[in-house]
């Protein structure tokens, strides 16, 4: 255990990388996921079909397979991206955006059809009705499931440990390998780190829910 | 219609046979050292020792690596692992009167070697298990039976000629390993992967500049792909592979040491080396001196 505390900067550095992976992939997945959800509910059938295909393909693929594809298959296909961090974010984004899409789509479906009809009746285009009528109401309903998706993402970053990214789980394995006598303590130390990250996410979600609560 | 069905059936039967034949072809053919299994071995050990129990039961479980060519490797097609570690296991088992086919092999990865010994899941761990003081706090380690050092595997013609050239370069190994830690300390960007073969692929496709781990393992990979890969530089660490046993049975240390010493003296150790690591072209070294067992 002394080894962990005397090298605590390494632990913090590793968690910093975990958080960087989380934040960057979360932002890109939210953007891509929202776009996909708009495709799926939108009036253009080609885009709707493409969105459905993407979600079905990606959501049915284990995250590890996507990592293997990005890190091992893509270089073989001469589609290599040099930067390991970018590759990690890419794999996480591809996977998470499918779940974000479905969470947001469920929110959109929770807005009653009358709302869309009314906005069409007053002459809104599809984009306008999404932007001003549907999405503001949908996002409110979407906070709890999106929080779950992001919490899953926070933990999914640990898959990157096996793909050249020295984030928290990789650092934990380094410490457990060197300090076989203190394994449980090391596990707990790193678990606490993950718990803190997840708690921050949950607290953020609860805050948003409160703020956006509809006065009934 | 009926004819068609018969034909389909025939084709299916033919395919099944062909697949079965493929399965057969993979097994066998692995080189291995003949060990002399001691008869009535149980009589050689005192009552109450773990060795006596094992000899009487006629069964032993040994943990080895499955992903290190030359050290401990099990291909998908074979039933038993190959490499110097399993060979050592066979020599040790033979002195208990246990034939190679009665050994139960269990895959151990770096992380579960101590837990497996402590919980009795395996009786011995022979899995490129470097002897360190930290590990000796919680498990017993006898040996060493082989000494190696960390080196670098690069693509032929790489700018990296020795460990001094790795500063700022991408160097891969297995996540959490001491090897990765050592190159990080020397200024390289450490890239951990799950298995050695994934790391090797990253070197081959040029994503990382070099792979690092114990020279013995690297030589195995270089031997598989001599056109593209080479091992460069002098070893920059010392790894002493030992045999792990549970601290509950301290009497095992002397037995392991004696059996290893015997295999040094009667040439079985050299035979085991030549049949495994020696195949990559390295000369058989002198067997390393054994650490004394604490009474």
Automatic annotation (TrEMBL), chain A:
UniProt keyword Membrane, yes or no: yes
Subcellular location per the Swiss-Prot or TrEMBL entry: Cell membrane
Transmembrane segments: 15-39, 51-72, 138-166, 186-208
Keyword Transmembrane annotated: yes
PANTHER family named in the record: AMINO-ACID ABC TRANSPORTER PERMEASE PROTEIN YHDX-RELATED (PTHR30614:SF37), MEMBRANE COMPONENT OF AMINO ACID ABC TRANSPORTER (PTHR30614)
Entries under NCBIfam families matching the protein: HEQRo_perm_3TM
Family according to the record: Belongs to the binding-protein-dependent transport system permease family. HisMQ subfamily.
Name by which UniProt lists this protein: Amino acid ABC transporter permease
UniProtKB/TrEMBL annotation, chain B:
Keyword Transport: yes
Signal peptide residues on this chain, from the entry's feature table: 1-20
PROSITE patterns: PROKAR_LIPOPROTEIN (PS51257)
InterPro entries, A to Z: Bact_solute-bind_prot3, Solute-binding_3/MltF_N
Domain called Solute-binding protein family 3/N-terminal: residue spans: 59-280
SUPFAM superfamilies linked to this entry: Periplasmic binding protein-like II
UniProt entry keywords in alphabetical sequence: Signal, Transport
Keyword Protease part of the UniProt annotation: no
Pfam family, one: SBP_bac_3
Gene3D superfamilies: Periplasmic binding protein-like II
Entry similarity comment: Belongs to the bacterial solute-binding protein 3 family.
Name by which UniProt lists this protein: Glutamate ABC transporter substrate-binding protein
Organism listed in the record: Nocardioides jiangsuensis
């Amino acid at each position: 255990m002394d080894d962990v505390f005397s090298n605590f900067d390494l632990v913090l550095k590793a968690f910093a990388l975990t958080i960087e992976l989380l934040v960057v992939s979360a932002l890109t997945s939210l953007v891509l996921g929202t776009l996909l959800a708009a495709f799926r509910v939108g009036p253009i059938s080609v885009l709707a079909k493409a969105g459905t295909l993407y979600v079905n393909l990606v959501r049915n693929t284990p995250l590890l397979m996507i990592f293997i594809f990005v890190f091992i298959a893509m270089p073989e296909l001469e589609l290599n991206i040099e930067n390991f961090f970018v590759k990690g974010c890419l794999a996480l984004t591809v996977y998470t955006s499918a779940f974000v899409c479905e969470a947001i789509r469920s929110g959109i479906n929770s807005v009653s059809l009358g709302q869309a009809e009314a906005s069409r009746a007053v002459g809104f285009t599809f984009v306008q009705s999404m932007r001003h009528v549907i999405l503001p109401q949908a996002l409110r309903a979407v906070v709890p499931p999106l929080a779950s998706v992001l919490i899953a993402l926070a933990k999914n970053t640990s898959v990157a440990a096996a793909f050249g990214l020295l984030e928290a789980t990789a650092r934990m394995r380094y410490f457990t390998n060197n300090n076989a006598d203190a394994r449980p303590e090391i596990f707990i130390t790193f678990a606490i780190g993950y718990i803190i990250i997840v708690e921050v996410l949950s607290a953020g979600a609860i805050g948003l829910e409160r703020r956006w609560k509809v006065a009934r | 219609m009926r004819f068609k069905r018969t034909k389909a059936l025939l084709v299916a039967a033919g395919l099944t046979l062909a697949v079965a034949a493929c399965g057969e072809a993979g097994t066998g053919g692995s080189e291995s050292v003949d060990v002399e299994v001691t008869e009535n071995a149980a009589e050689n050990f005192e009552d109450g020792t773990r060795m006596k129990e094992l000899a009487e039961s006629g069964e032993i479980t040994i943990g080895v690596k499955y992903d290190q060519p030359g050290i401990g490797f099990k291909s998908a097609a074979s039933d038993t692992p190959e490499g110097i570690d399993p060979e050592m296991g066979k020599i040790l088992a033979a002195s208990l009167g246990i034939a190679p086919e009665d050994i139960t092999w269990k895959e151990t990865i770096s992380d579960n070697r101590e837990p497996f010994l402590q919980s009795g899941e395996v009786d011995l761990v022979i899995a490129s298990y470097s002897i360190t003081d930290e590990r000796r706090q919680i498990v017993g380690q006898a040996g060493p039976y082989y000494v190696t050092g960390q080196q670098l595997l690069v693509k032929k013609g790489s700018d990296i000629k020795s460990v001094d050239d790795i500063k700022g370069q991408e160097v891969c190994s297995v996540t959490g390993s001491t090897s990765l830690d050592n190159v990080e300390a020397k200024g390289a960007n450490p890239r951990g992967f799950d298995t050695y073969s994934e790391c090797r692929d990253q070197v081959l496709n040029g994503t990382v500049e070099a792979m690092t781990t114990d020279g013995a393992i690297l030589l195995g990979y270089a031997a598989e792909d001599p056109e593209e890969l080479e091992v460069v530089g002098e070893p920059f660490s010392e790894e002493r592979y030992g045999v792990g046993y549970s601290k509950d049975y301290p009497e095992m240390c002397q037995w392991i040491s004696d059996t290893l010493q015997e295999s040094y003296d009667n040439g079985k150790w050299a035979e085991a080396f030549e049949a495994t690591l020696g195949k990559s072209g390295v000369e058989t070294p002198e067997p390393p001196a054994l650490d004394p067992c604490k009474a």
